[in-house]
Amino acid sequence: MSDCLFCGIAAGEIPAEIVYSDGAIVAFRDLNPQAPTHVLVIPREHHVDAAHLAAANPALLGRLAGVAAEVAESDGLGGGYRLVLNSGADAGQTVNHVHLHVLGGRHLSWPPG
Ligand code: AMP
Ligand code: ZN
Q1: What's the pLDDT tens digit per position in 30-48?
Q2: Taking the mean position of all CA atoms in its chain, how far away is CA 8?
């Protein structure tokens, strides 16, 4: 999808601070971080949200969590971190290419806003 921001980042056409990359997954730092660590983990394949990815390729959805754990370890988040998949407008999803937020490096309150 040429008009998709995150497809553009995955393709290297749009700059981002990449922290992990393999043949199927890219992780990069959020432009507007909400915590000391705020990384987005995405599949290179375009899927609108987690449900679409789960339906099409559940193993790939699982691999996003594995990459998130690697990012958390390399950022020193041994005390814990939060994974977020905003799905749909009511949850605040603004980019319609599934992305797993990895947040950490400060205390994260619950419930979220
Ligand atoms: P969401 O609201 O769950 O759809 O999350 C979208 C996230 O993408 C937000 O946290 C934005 O700050 C982030 N974002 C938007 N554009 C970029 C970009 N060019 N590079 C990195 N992160 C971005
Ligand atoms: Zn896309």
Answers
A1: 999 999 999 999 999 999 9
A2: 15
